[in-house]
Amino acid sequence: MSGEELQYPDDFVQRLETIWGIGFLSPGGPEEVGEIVKGVDLAGQHVLDIGCGTGGPAIVLTRDLGAAHVTAIDIEAPLLTRAEQNAQEAHVAGKTTFQLVEPGPLPFPDGTFDIVFSKDALIHIKDKAALYGDVLRVLRPGGIFVASDWLGGENTESSPEFARFRDLGHLKFAMATGEETAAVMRQAGFTGVATRNRNAWYAKLSQFEYEQISGPLRDQLIETVGEEIYTHWVAVRRALADAATVGALRPTHLRGVKPGITT
Ligand SMILES: C[S@@+](CC[C@H](N)C(=O)[O-])C[C@H]1O[C@@H](n2cnc3c(N)ncnc32)[C@H](O)[C@@H]1O
Question: What whole-number distance in Å separates Cα of residue 93 and Cα of residue 4?
Answer without folding.
Answer: 29
